Amino acid sequence: MTPATRQEVLGLYRKVLQIAKNWQSASGQIEETMREKEYIRNEARTLFRKNKNSDEQVTDPELIKQCIEECEARIEIGLHYNIPYPRPIHLPPMGLAHKQGRTLRHQEKLRKISKPIYLKSHDEVS
């Protein structure tokens, strides 16, 4: 990881923690606000540490770029909708299959390809 990339990643981590510190839930209830703040902090710690310390440590520059893009997308979506949780995609179970009858394995591949960038790491951790 280059020093510039490292600074960008650390800057994103600080930005996420700052958002968590200043977070206010949509309902305005104190309990819900605290729960959402804790979720933001835990999600950030889990994902950033997973990519830093795991056996599958992210070292490929393209993969690092994808992780940075995912983080930025989740920040923007969370701030825009005032919801800290990832927005789910709604696809019917076999919604991508053609009428000619594709196999389930191919269907799962299509669903993985169609997954938005902001949900790439969500299934891996959750």
Structure description:
By secondary structure, this protein is an all-alpha fold. The protein has five helices and no strands. Helix 1 runs antiparallel to helix 2 (30-53). The longest helix is centred in the first third of the chain and has 24 residues, at 30-53. The two termini are 26 Å apart.
Average residue pLDDT? 80
Contiguous low-pLDDT stretches (5 residues minimum) are none
DSSP strand content? under 5%
Question: How many individual helices?
Answer: 5
Q: Structural class, from secondary structure content?
A: mainly alpha
Question: What's the total count of β strands?
Answer: 0
Helix percent band: 55-70%
- Helices and strands, in order, run as HHHHH
Can you summarize the main beta sheet? none
Tell me the layout of helices and strands:
Elements lengths: L2 H20 L7 H24 L7 H21 L22 H11 L7 H4 L1
Helix pairs in contact: 1-2, 1-3
Structure at a glance:
It is built from 5 helices and no strands. With 126 residues, the protein is mostly helical.
Comma- or semicolon-separated keywords:
single chain; 126 residues; mainly alpha
